[in-house]
Specification:
This protein is of the alpha/beta class. It folds into 2 domains: 115 residues, Glycogen Phosphorylase B (Rossmann fold, 3-Layer(aba) Sandwich); 172 residues, 3-Layer(aba) Sandwich (Rossmann fold), CATH 3.40.50.2000. The protein contains 10 helices and 11 strands. It has a 6-stranded parallel β-sheet, sandwiched between helices. Helix 1 runs parallel beside helix 8. 45% of the residues are buried. Keywords: Glycosyltransferase, Transferase. InterPro entries: Glyco_trans_9, LPS_LOS_Heptosyltrfase. This is Glycosyltransferase family 9 protein.
Length: 309
């Protein structure tokens, strides 16, 4: 069976699509899958089983990227085409079956919208694929038996960023003697590039030698393996937040201007702390330390679902 799976440009949306892709792989164990995604999201699928190859769809003027894609896939006959980009391309190539998402934002969580395409309710949760080599590197970076707390103080937009001093205070409270992660060491994660480095810099500076700096230093499979070793991830609405939830690690997403009802982290142990006034553009500073800490404590204290045990 040959499946063409057209998914997102951004990492977070790509991660949310992995649940449907995993469902298809389980239903069609011998299928060969060609994944189409944006360049930033390629790593999400790098360790995916049954992946024939990945087509990196880099945007071009006048939507010429869709013409480039058509030339690569039109010569094949596909058993199933799944198009989460609402591009219309699925209707121009030979396929036995087509599943195409409608354009425009609709109410409800993105995960539920993706699952509904194939009548899956509840929708399958995202997954995070990484290899033994990624796990070995994560084990070397995060050694020991004690807990690790992962922080994600960056985002693709500065208005989605929680104040740095609150990240530091939250880490102090969680790792303090008597705290839910007493004695925890801290790993700070972020994507590549100067903007991500600048967002993370105040947190790293304040934590000093207590923090492991992993900003821009990991591939996405390596980041997934690192996050899977952590006792808790707390971070802004970002691709890393979604990747963490997909690993099954307890994940707290912090939300201000982006709608949590649409993009809250989806996983067996995931929750969102939402700023009062959200989704107003300037609402992120309204999220207090006390609210985030309370949400983290409740997440850690909640029973572990049987599926995540």
């Amino acid at each position: 069976m040959r499946i063409l799976f057209i998914t997102a440009t951004r990492i977070g949306d790509a991660v949310l699509s992995t649940g449907l892709l995993d469902h298809l792989l389980r239903a069609h164990a011998h299928a060969k899958v060609v994944v189409v995604c944006g360049p930033a999201a390629e790593g999400v699928f790098a360790r995916m089983p049954n992946r024939a190859w990945t087509i990196s769809l880099e945007k071009r003027p006048f939507r010429l990227h869709w013409w480039d894609l058509w030339r690569q896939v039109a010569g094949s006959r596909w058993d199933l085409v799944v198009d989460l980009r609402a591009s219309g391309l699925a209707w121009t190539i030979r396929a036995k079956r087509r599943v195409v998402m409608r354009g425009g934002r609709r109410p409800g969580h993105r995960l539920a919208q993706i699952g509904a395409l194939m009548g899956l309710d509840p929708p399958p949760l995202p997954v995070a694929w990484f290899a033994p080599a990624d796990a070995r590197r994560a084990s070397a970076l995060l050694p020991g038996d004690g807990p690790w707390l992962a922080l994600g103080p960056t985002a693709n937009w500065d208005r989605k960023v929680w104040p740095a001093d609150r990240f530091v205070a939250l880490a102090d409270a969680l790792s303090a003697s008597g705290g839910p992660l007493a004695g925890a060491r801290v790993a700070v994660l972020g994507g590549p590039g100067a903007a991500e480095r600048a967002m993370a810099a105040p947190v790293l500076a304040a934590l000093g030698g207590r923090a492991l700096d992993l900003v821009g230093n990991l591939s996405l499979p390596e980041a997934a393996a690192v996050l899977a070793r952590c006792a808790l991830f707390v971070g802004n609405d970002s691709g890393l937040m979604h990747l963490s939830a997909a690993t099954g690690t307890p994940t707290l997403g912090l939300f201000g201007p982006s709608p949590a009802d649409h993009y809250a982290p989806a996983g067996p142990r995931a929750a969102a702390a939402v700023a009062p006034g959200s989704p107003d553009l300037d609402s992120m500073p309204n999220l207090t330390l006390e609210a985030a800490l309370g949400a983290a404590e409740r997440l850690l204290a909640a029973p572990v679902p049987a599926s995540a045990a």
